[in-house]
Amino acid sequence: MPLNKHDQLNLLKDILTNQTQDCCGSVSECEQLERLVKSLMANNQLDGNALSLLEEIYDYSQGGIQSSNLDSHITTYQPQLTQWVQDVNELY
């Protein structure tokens, strides 16, 4: 059963929240972020601000996948992660 938009946003928020709180994560989490963002971006019901947010998260996930030190990458993005969690809450 595919995830609906609400479920996808919840999962996106959960991963970002975990990375914010733990200051660490896994490549598989970054890959999941990438898949979620791609799926959400394919949804034509999002406005320009939401698309911009998702593009930022996509770039972050790509950087995490390619990073030789993922924990450092996550730590570097702590301010953005906190903001993204708040911004995702507004997409519901």
UniProtKB/TrEMBL annotation:
Q: Which InterPro entries match?
A: YtzH (IPR025547)
**Can you name this protein?**
YtzH-like family protein
- The organism named in the record is Bacillus carboniphilus
